[in-house]
Amino acid sequence: MLTESRDEEQIIARVAALDIGKAELVCCVRVPGKGASTPRLQEVTTHSTMTRALTELANHLVDLGIERVVMEATSDYWKPVFYLLEAHGLDPWLVNARDVKHLPGRPKTDVLDAVWLCKVAERQMLRPSFVPILHGVLL
Q1: pLDDT tens track, the chain, 139 positions
Q2: Helix H or strand E segment including 39
Q3: Cα separation of 123 and 77, whole Å?
Q4: What is the distance between the terminal CA atoms of the chain, rounded to a whole angstrom?
Q5: 19 by DSSP, 3-state: which?
Q6: What is the DSSP letter of 37?
Q7: Single pTM value for the model
Q8: Cα(38)–Cα(80) distance, rounded to whole angstroms?
Q9: What's the rounded Cα separation, in Å, for the pair 119 and 19?
């Protein structure tokens, strides 16, 4: 006998995704809206990959109460971003590009890629890669 099932959508309420390049990164943030008429709010910003700009971004993400920050592994550009976000108490996830590229709907621009990655991350459709913990490393 089939019975009715009321599954609540399992999403991460406060999530960010980064598309990282050599000189800059695009950050998409998705958070709950103010009421039922606005289910999700989204912000897309571009930042330099210099330490001061990354620190400002990390502080902004902490202020927003971001639960998880997802980034795709591109060259070695992710390393300073990952460890700086982690040092600010955030939960960065490095995802394998091979896993991400097989998901449907992958866009081609940096902005659209960050938005798409954020939406995929909030629905928990990604898994993190292993990243070793570095103690005493200065960025």
Answers
A1: 665 545 456 678 899 999 998 999 999 999 998 876 778 899 999 999 999 999 999 999 999 999 999 998 668 899 999 999 999 999 999 987 666 665 566 666 778 788 888 888 888 777 777 776 665 555 5
A2: strand 38-48
A3: 25
A4: 59
A5: strand
A6: T
A7: 0.80
A8: 35
A9: 13
